[in-house]
Design goal:
This protein is α+β, with helices and mostly antiparallel strands. 24% of the residues lie in helices and 40% in strands. Strand 1 and strand 2 form a beta hairpin. The longest helix has 13 residues. The radius of gyration is 13 Å and the shape is globular. The mean pLDDT is 90.
């Protein structure tokens, strides 16, 4: 999903940018007895999805071909925007 010359640092930087964008969307995805959370945001001209386990450990990050269809098919529930969860 990244250019061939991209490094792990480039991948991490992209993820950080999405997670730090106040307008990025936060989702909940219950799967059996486990909870997953995801954040979607636009970076490098594509909408990325970053998925975390309930323990906060990142599972994966990728740009789905059709984000809306991907989320609907799996039953993700929109919780709000990153800015809704920031308490100063």
């Amino acid at each position: 999903h990244l250019p061939g010359e991209a490094t792990v640092d480039d991948y991490n930087s992209l993820i950080q940018k999405v997670l730090q964008e106040p307008g990025s969307l936060v989702y909940h995805y219950p799967l059996g007895t486990r909870d997953y959370y995801a954040v979607s945001g636009k970076e490098e001209g594509r909408r990325w999805l970053i998925i975390f386990g309930g323990d906060g450990i990142m599972e994966t990050a990728f740009p789905p071909d059709d984000l809306s269809a991907y989320l609907a098919k799996r039953g993700f529930v929109l919780l709000g925007r990153i800015e809704d969860f920031i308490h100063e």
